[in-house]
Amino acid sequence: MADVRENARVKSVLDDPSTLAIVNVYAKAFLDAAGAQAGEQIEEFTSFVTDVLDANPEFRTILISGVANRDEQIQLIDRVVGPYGSEFFTNYLRVLANHERLDLLPQILEATQFEFEKRHGQQRVQVVSVSPLDDAALGRVREKIASAFSFDPIIENVTDPKLLGGLVIRVNNTVYDGSLRSRLNQLAKRMQQGSLHEIQSGRDRFSHPEGD
Questions:
Q1: Which has the higher per-residue pLDDT, 176 or 28?
Q2: Class of 17-117 per CATH?
Q3: What pLDDT band is residue 189 in, cutting at 50, 70 and 90?
Q4: Any idea where the domains of the chain sit in the sequence?
Q5: What is the tens place of the pLDDT at every residue in 82-125?
Q6: Are 126 and 170 in contact, with CB atoms under 8 Å apart?
Q7: Rounded Cα gap, residues 87 and 66, in angstroms
Q8: 150 - beta bridge partners?
Q9: Residue 205 CB: number of other CB atoms within 10 A?
Q10: pLDDT tens digit sequence for 192-203
Q11: Terminus-to-terminus CA distance in the chain, angstroms?
């Protein structure tokens, strides 16, 4: 585990408190209604956002960007989603349309995923490394994190060649920085502080020579 701890904000579409409060309501309602089928329903939710909305920008604009009014949105849902989606998910989209919340669909998905993981004792942990970690290395990192925290970590490995070496681990809004670059920066600061101390000591000896 890294040896330096510092607070750091994690940028997210859920950083806005008012948006967070709204999407959390719909995320919890989704999971409560889905019950034991929550995992499968989240997969359908994710597929709809990534495979349908993200892959079809024009449809995305019409459905969730305010171009269509509420009745038109519901008609689109019935015509496009209804024949292929589950009854549960289709009805959920209708509810969002009725409450004019379809514009928050991606944020609600993100909040739903986080809430689902939380309910199952899981938590996402971002592990930053110089190059992608192999399965063995990821397994060792996961074991160390699991032993240090009271949750089952879901590892998200991202790369940053600026690290030089070592790892940076982000848990919630806290960063544990064990990268080589961080250690070099710490060493440089200590050396600088040592040099300043020596300079100050020399000045004191010069100002107050022995024997005066």
A1: 28
A2: mainly alpha
A3: low
A4: 17-117, 122-212
A5: 999 999 999 999 999 999 999 999 999 999 999 999 999 999 99
A6: yes
A7: 24
A8: none
A9: 10
A10: 665 555 545 555
A11: 53
Q: How far is CA 29 from the centre of its chain?
A: 21
Q: Which of 168, 192, 144 is nearest to 4 (CA)?
A: 168
Q: Does position 172 have pLDDT exceeding 90, yes or no?
A: no
Amino acid code (one letter) for 68: A
Give DSSP secondary structure letters for 122-171: EEEEEEEESS---HHHHHHHHHHHHHHSSSEEEEEEEE-GGG-SS-EEEE
pLDDT digits (tens, 9 = 90+) for 42-66: 999 999 999 999 999 999 999 998 8
122 φ/ψ angles, rounded to the nearest 5 degrees: -110, 160
Model confidence, pTM: 0.67
Mean pLDDT of 158-185: 80
Cα–Cα distance between 65 and 86 in angstroms, integer?
23
Q: What does each C-alpha distance from 170 to 6, 20, 33, 176, 178 come to in angstroms?
A: 10, 20, 32, 6, 11
When pLDDT is cut at 50, 70 and 90, the band that residue 3 belongs to is: very low
- What is the full DSSP assignment across 110-135? HHHHHHHHHHTTEEEEEEEESS---H
Q: With contact defined as beta carbons under 8 Å apart, do 27 and 112 qualify? A: yes
Residue 208 is given by DSSP the state: S
| CA geometry: angle 134, 136, 138, nearest 5 deg | 70
Q: Position of tokens 């110089």? A: 130
How many CB atoms lie under 10 A from the CB of residue 109?
21
Token pair in block for residue 19: 């948006």
